[in-house]
Structure formats: C-alpha cells, structure tokens
Write a structure and sequence with these properties.
8-stranded parallel beta sheet; 15 helices
C-alpha cells in the first residue's frame, strides 16, 4: 500500500473486494470459566467457531497458528508490576493469603467494593489458568495483526480478542489484559496511521486511554451512555483526547433502544467523514456483540444484520482490517453474529437455517435461525439527542481536519519506531499447516450420539428386513401367487 494515499471510498453497494482472510482460533479458551453466575462466558467463542465450521467457512480462510503472547509483548500495554502479579495469581493464593487479596484489590482483581452502587462486585474474578487465558487471547490478536502487517492478508479475525476495558495497571469490565492495544502497537510498526472503531455497547475506554495523547491512532467508539449508571460511565461526546491526540478520540454516545436505523444514521456518515479526514492505513474493528437486541446487560437493540452492516461498511474501504470480538452476554446471539460477520468478511452469503452441529440446541429459542427476530419497527425518526451528538461529532472532525491540513504527517511518539514500508514477517510461519485442535468435546459428543443413533437405525432396519423375508418364506404358495 502507498503510505501516502488517502483512504478509498467504500463501494456504493457496500461490498468489498474479495480479499485473503486469515482466522485465529484457540480451543483452550473453551475451558475458561469465569464462574457460574458471571455474565462472561468464553465458550461463546467455541460456539461461534462451531457455526463457522458447520457453514463450511473455514475452507475460505487461512488458519493462523496458535501462538500465545509473551509477557514482554504484553508490556506494550501494561506495567511490569501488574503483569508480574497477574502471572502468579491463582484462586488458591487469593483464598489463603490476605496480602495477595490486598494487592489484587489494587489491580481491581477479585472482589472489589463498588462505591457507585454501594456493593461488592466480582467483575474480574480470580479464575483458574488466568495467566494462560490472557496470553492466549492476546496472542491471537497479535498473530492476526502481524498477518496484516506482513501484507499477505486483507482481513484477519480473532473472535476471542477485543478486551477493550483493561487498563495499564488494572483489570476492568471482565478484561484482564488489553489485546487491542498490543495489536495496534504491532500495526504501527508497519502502518502510518491506525484507526480503531468500537461497536461494543460499552465505551472502549481502555483503548482510548492508551492512545488519547498520540497522533497516529484515532479511536472512535459508538456506545450506550447515560452519563451516570451505565458502565464504564465514560465516553461523553465532549471527550476528544488531549495533547497530540486532541480530536483523535471520537465518542458517539447512544441511547438505549437505538436500533438499526438510528444506529446506521449516525455510523455511516460519521465513519465516512472519519475516513476522509484521518485517512487511516489500517483499521481495527472491535465487534462487541452486546449491542445486539436481547443482550443480558445492554440495550442498544441491533439485529445481527444491523450489527454486521457496520462490518460490511468498514470492509468496503478495502483497508487492512483486524476484526476482534468483545462483549456479548446472550451467547447464542453472539455466536450467530460473529459467524455471520465472518461470512461478511469473506464476501459470502450463508443460509439463515443453522446447520446441524454440536451446539445446535443453543439456538432453539431463535428457531434455529442465524437471524433471530428483533423488533426494529418501521421508520424511526431522528431524536434530538442524535441530532446534537451528530452535530458535535462532525464539529470535532472538522477541527481535526483543520489540524491535519496544517501538519498532515504524524510524527512517531518518543516510544514508537517509525513505520516501515515493509517489515520482515514470514506469513507462512504464522499459518497452521495442519490444525491440531482436535475435535471440540461438544462436537464429538454430537457426532458420537449421531453414530449411535445411525447404528441403531441400521440394525433395526436390517432386523425388520429379515423379518419380512422370513414371513414371505413361510407364506403358502397360493398366497404368494
């Protein structure tokens, strides 16, 4: 890519050129358990992978080799003190050692008193294999970013990533380490400007905080916001970054019940202007699925198609694109969404009817359809809140445009290496030549049950056929005639 060229406009039909897509999946994340009553269920990633497999989408992508991140790589986003503590933290050490609990509280791990709601919370529980989990989902986003930086792929996907709340020295909002920050910094080694877009229902506060004073990264977050009770309580429209990052943090606060039409009425023109003004060379899109209708925590009310329309629009700019997961707490809806968005990234339309596979019973409530029913209603008028938000966001973009006209080339920050036109990444080394995932335990059970049922059916069929022949053999000659 020519580093100096402006971002191309999206295609009028919303489609993108068919590009090479790579995909990351680590089966070990299947086993991660936040606890029985916790809203976060990492198994949703295995469910999404089950759908991707059942629809045959793996044949259209290259599979990235499972490669957990290293502590050194995580230090691009987090303090050494925090990572050292996180590495040694286990449920046993937390339970038996009061000093460990005190340190954990400092880093917002385990049970923490919530002053806002006057109660104890356990958003970021001390779980088994916590350090391994962090290395694995962050490693996926880093591997995907490196695949894009190597130049061989147009789109890279890691649905286990997208943990946008984690901060430099503390966990937050179910997120322990911020894989997005690590991935963006890897992309900055190749690309002049990187755009981060967040369509999770919650403000992408951790990513914004990491880059709010920097000139080469722009963060744009579309999120539910009421200013006082919806986590993380940040992301007002006047939050625009500071210093060299002024106007490079863009926030689009939305009302509960926004729905597809009103969401797109903001997303499309705002993102169109962002692309014109900031002219990124690569994009990271966090596809948190808690913005879907029916989510257990949030209430933006998007349909699967409405959510995926945002992915389709960004794909249409034909820039190197990293797709990540994020929030999403009605797990069948999450899996449906990420599977469909995988198909959108590939450029393939898939049937609404969910194929038979090991997780199919999870989709009974949505009638085994990928696109479950949502109440979008008819035409929805623009609200006063929407009009005010759109006006202020566009004013911020005009201020950024004026600033970039004066100084179009962003200078690397003191701790950044300047971008290289080509970096030495062996794309083949990133790929999984012969996937050794093994079979998903749920899929194996489904297959084995099917084998038992089929065997029983064939045995009974054979027995019935023998009985028929036996009866025919015993019939009188006259009756046979």
């Amino acid at each position: 890519m020519d580093m100096g060229e402006n971002s191309p406009p999206p295609r009028a039909d919303g489609a993108s050129e068919r590009r090479r897509v790579c995909y990351y999946y680590d089966p070990r994340i299947f086993h991660v358990d936040y606890g029985e009553k916790h809203n976060m269920v990492p198994r949703r990633v295995a469910m999404a992978h089950g759908l991707v497999t059942a629809y045959g989408l793996l044949d259209d992508m290259d599979l990235l080799r499972v490669a957990p991140a290293t502590e050194e790589e995580l230090m691009h986003a987090h303090s050494k003190e925090y990572l050292d503590f996180l590495r040694g933290l286990t449920p046993a050490s937390y339970d038996r050692d009061g000093e460990v609990r005190v340190k954990a509280k400092k880093h917002k791990l385990g049970k923490v008193w919530d002053n806002r709601h006057r109660c104890w919370s356990n958003d970021n529980p001390v779980i088994h294999d916590l350090w391994d989990y962090c290395l694995r989902y962050a490693g996926g986003s880093l591997a995907a970013a490196r695949a894009l930086a190597g130049g061989g792929y147009g789109v890279a996907i890691n649905w286990s990533g997208g943990m946008h709340h984690a901060c430099r020295s503390e966990a937050s909002g179910f997120c322990y380490v911020n894989d997005i920050v690590v991935a963006v910094k890897a992309l900055l080694g190749r690309f002049r400007r990187v755009l981060y877009v967040d369509i999770d229902a919650h403000h992408g506060d951790g990513v914004e905080a990491a880059f709010r004073k920097r000139g080469r990264v722009m963060t744009v977050s579309f999120h539910q916001y009421d200013g006082h009770s919806f986590f993380p309580f940040t992301g007002g429209v006047e939050d625009v970054g500071e210093g060299r990052g002024r106007y490079r943090a863009l926030n689009v606060p939305l009302e509960a019940g926004t729905g597809d039409e009103r969401y797109h009425a903001l997303f499309k023109p705002i993102m169109g202007r962002v692309m014109e003004v900031f002219a990124p060379d690569a994009v990271v899109l966090q596809c948190g699925a808690d913005s879907l209708a029916g989510d257990r925590i949030a209430g933006l009310g998007l349909s699967v198609r409405g959510h995926a329309e945002c992915v389709r629009l960004i794909c249409g700019y034909n820039l190197p694109l990293l797709l990540l997961g994020g929030g999403g707490y009605t797990i069948n809806h999450v899996a449906s969404c990420w599977c469909y968005e995988t198909a959108v990234a590939i450029g393939k339309e898939i049937p609404d009817e969910i194929p038979q596979h090991g997780y199919q019973h999870y989709y009974q409530s949505q009638e085994y359809k990928l696109h479950y029913r949502t109440d979008q209603g008819g035409h929805v008028a623009e609200t006063e809140h929407m009009a005010n938000v759109k006006r202020r966001v566009m004013e911020h973009l005009e201020a950024l445009a004026a600033e970039l006209n004066e100084q179009p080339e962003p200078e690397p920050d003191s701790d950044e290496e300047p971008p290289q036109a080509a970096i030495g990444i062996d794309g083949g080394a990133l790929l999984e030549q012969s996937p050794s995932w093994g079979e998903d335990p749920v899929e194996r059970l489904h297959r084995r049950c099917g084998e038992v049922n089929l065997t029983g059916f064939l045995i009974n069929l054979g027995r019935n056929e023998c009985l028929k022949r036996s009866k025919v053999g015993r019939m009188p000659e006259a009756k046979k005639q």
